[in-house]
Amino acid sequence: MTIDELTPKTGEWLRGVGPMSDVVISSRIRLARNLADRPFLSTASATTRTEIYRSLVDTITSTPAGADAWLVDIEQTDPIDREVLVERHLVSRQHIDGEGSRGVTISPNETRALMINEEDHLRIQGLRSGLELEALWEEVNGVDDTLANHLAFAFDRRFGYLTACPTNVGSGVRVSVMLHLPALKLTKEIERVARAARDMHLAVRGMHGEGTDAVGDLYQLSNQTTLGKSEEETISVFSKTIIPKIVEYERTARDSLANRSPHLLDDKIWRAYGILVNARHVSSEETHVLLSPIRMGIHMGRFTELDIPMLNELFLHTQPAHLQKLHGKPLDGDQRDIVRAQYLRDRFARH
Amino acid sequence: MSLICQRCQQAKATVHITDTIPERVERHLCEDCAEKEGIIIKQQHQTTNEILQKLIKHKTGLGTVEDITCPKCGMTFREFQLKGQLGCSHDYEVFEKLLTPLIERAHEGATQHVGKVPATAGETIRKQTGLLRLRRKLQEAVEREDYELAARVRDRIQTLESA
Q1: Which of A43, A54, A244, B5 is within CB 3.0–4.6 Å of B30 for a Cys-Cys bond?
Q2: Which of B94, B96, B113, B137 is the best substitution to test chain A (most A C-beta atoms within 10 A)?
């Protein structure tokens, strides 16, 4: 697999399937692990860093945890290709912006990505479309077990898995669920939901994680505490309690919009479509904002000009790095906005 | 009416206090003079690290916490405060006193791992961690008055303890 081959595909997290996929875009679980006999990366020399990288790559690719995986050596990867990985949620921005030996192994269907030498030596990540946390945990846990047969992870009886930052210590598990909440935004109930989530010690962020705004009504919920709770307890807060509740609120808000002001709702959807079909200069942020009511319209059965797979394709391919890869050469911001509008018109014309 | 500070006779008095001992006297001071007399502590911009450090010093009663150094990786506690990243797994032991209050705050008061234990960690640790988790579950069940669950959890604890 190469990044060129990856780019035209839609990626696991945008498959648009799985439980509650009308509201839940994707589920993610990641585990933070460090090798017991090595210093953390903040004090590791370049040589040690490279040794850690090599030993993890060897173990991962020689076990079922990653035998079929594809390795991307970040140092050897060009800047736009690195961005493609971030846009596909396979690596964090911190990972590509870091320095020294580092990389990621990616499973063929993009459901599994193991980041090596990000903040910790290893970050095992699993990704699924829709709300699929239990199955995902089984997979991620299995990968961890497999690797633990070959590697000794830093572990302490009291503090659990030891991580570079004490905020991840314990289970080292981070559960994130990405939600599309346009109706709660329109009915101005979103703040109440966000507050309730924060009261449960969950972080609420925009699509690209820490410090990002919720562009296109996409919100990411994740746990903040990793000590004092088992992995299963942390996961069940999401799968059994908070997510089904938010999904229910969002669905109710959609119904109430449809009942109270169907014309305003349809107008919002069709205007967004009208702009996307006719624009001559459009940013990726605006594209995401416009795709939001259309996504809701499709799920509500009010809009049939597009389907979810095509909408997700537009969503991914209009992001800056994907757009440049598909166009075949680097573009500056202004050129991108023109090419993006052209891409959208062509894609709609072919549809 | 704006009052002039009774102490320096220059700045505007913004701190107004009434002493009652030995006798009732009203006093009007400016912020600087009030601070000099130890009546107020002026609000200053502090970095999160400074606040954190003060908190740690307060909690641990230690003077120069930043000097504690990990013999294994050479990291000092001050470096950790600046970077937010520890240097090696040994730091958890070396800085334990200082880290525990931070960990407690970051994890809703928890200081004990109850999750997964790696297979390599040995049977004893696995058993102890399992017991901790079950005891907590038992406590929660009793608090919720779910005695049926509590009884089941108690049985599992007994089985595990005698194993």
Answers
A1: B5
A2: B113
